[in-house]
Amino acid sequence: MELGTADRCTFSGCLMPKVTQVYALERVASMLGEDLEMLEAIVSNDDNLSYGNIISVDTATDENTKLITAHGIQELRDMLSDAKRSPEQWRDFLDDFVNDPEIITRIKQNGPR
């Protein structure tokens, strides 16, 4: 079987991983025991996780809903675990990935979970 290349890739000629289940951020926050607003801030930038791990769903409202794949949850779990190795790394992580000063202040006051 020949794999499609980037310059001649069509839907039938490329292999893509099959996503069969996605998770709402509320569920992910509960699963990981993390702050929902912090996770929303992290996934608001699609570049913060590997391509395809954050899925935007256009709903009937004016806002898009962000969903995360199972692989995205593991990637997020690994990122958070690495960031929590020291208080300095945690502060740097929050400064780099969360753009809302109020969320950063609240998370820093509560400390890493």
Give a written overview of the molecule.
This protein is of the alpha+beta class and 113 residues long. The chain has one domain (21-110). It has helices at residues 25-32, 36-43, 70-83, 87-97, 101-110, and strands at residues 22-24, 54-58, 64-69. A three-stranded antiparallel beta sheet has the order 1-3-2. The longest helix has 14 residues, at 70-83. It starts with 21 loop residues before the first strand and ends with a helix. Residues 1-6 have low confidence and may be disordered.
Q: Could you list some keywords that capture this structure?
A:
single chain, 113 residues, alpha+beta, 3-stranded antiparallel β-sheet
Q: From the helix content, strand content and strand pairing, which structural class follows?
A: alpha+beta
Main beta sheet strand tally, sense and closure: 3 strands, antiparallel
Overall morphology: globular
C-alpha termini separation: 47 Å
Unreliable stretches covering 5 or more consecutive residues: 1-6
Give the amount of beta strand, in percent: 5-15%
Number of domains as seen in the coordinates? 1
Radius of gyration: 17 Å
Number of strands: 3
Report mean pLDDT, rounded to a whole number.
83
SSE run:
EHHEEHHH
Strand order of the largest sheet: 1-3-2
Number of helices: 5
Helical residue percent band: 40-55%
